[in-house]
Amino acid sequence: MFIHGVPSDYYGPRKADLLVQFLKKFIAPDVAILNSDSAISEFVDAAGTHFPIFMGFGLNESVISNLAVKYKKKAWFSVAKDFSDAIMTKYDFDKVPALASIHTAQKEQSIFYGPFEEQFLENCIKQNLFPLALPINEDTLQLLKDDDRKIVLSIVQDEADEKSLGLIRILKAAASANRDLIFGYVGVKQWEDFTESFEVDKKTKLPKMIVWDGNEKYFSIIGSESIEETDIGTQISRFLEDYREGNVIQKRITGLSFIDFIGSQMGIRLVFMIIFVVAVMILILTIGKEEPPRVGRRDQVDHGGSSVSQKEAIELLRATDKED
Description:
By secondary structure, the protein is α/β, with parallel strands linked by helices. It is built from twelve helices and eleven strands. Helix 7 packs across helix 9 and helix 11 (266-286) packs antiparallel against helix 12 (310-323). One of its GO terms (cellular component) is endoplasmic reticulum.
């Protein structure tokens, strides 16, 4: 998948303050080594909520170091060398080695007990890069561009209303049992132009569910497109069964092609470019003057080194700016 018109190698946030945080992450060690409960807590706090955290317990950092480099732009990686029973209870694991996947903003976490061969470990990481139910917006679309899984997309009127929140809770349960798919949702109120691409207008009965390939094709499920208010779980199960059995109608998004739709948003790209310039200037002025986040500090982190230098990070952002 790809989204034209957005820098191809940038996965971070677009707000200026979060951009600075992202840049500091970008030059931090690939794998942080944590030697106490307090170091674990401080690492999680410093990591923020924009990216998932993968934390190994009883794992050698060499086990995840290659994947930490590969997915550095999309997640935080760490290994805890020393921790108490309270940490085991907090992160809900009862033996080691274990890898915890943590989505702080959504208060979601899961545990992987292996096998820890790279193939299985990478599969675990890929399946846990996103929360169980992913809000669809321009930032998350950029994150999705390298994932070839189909997206079960629920279109609601307003993501924040009670009915939608109830639907999202059920989507999370479905996502947990169907890791080969991504479950996302978007509100007409939050992003009307995007929802109109899937033949949604004022007459459309919502919530509406489709399966989207992340580009220009999507599938309506015969007899299961709209979700009624009662027995939502059963309806979603039937929707997934019908999709897997091929009871679908293939369609293409309406209006502009999706690629052109994203590419046409010149004002957004201009603002994005300006924010990048401001963020880089702030970083240059502040780096070395303010104490860096606890992540990567000598007393908590083994400075095995970052795969990306400060200079490379700034050069990357400048190159991204030129692409726009």
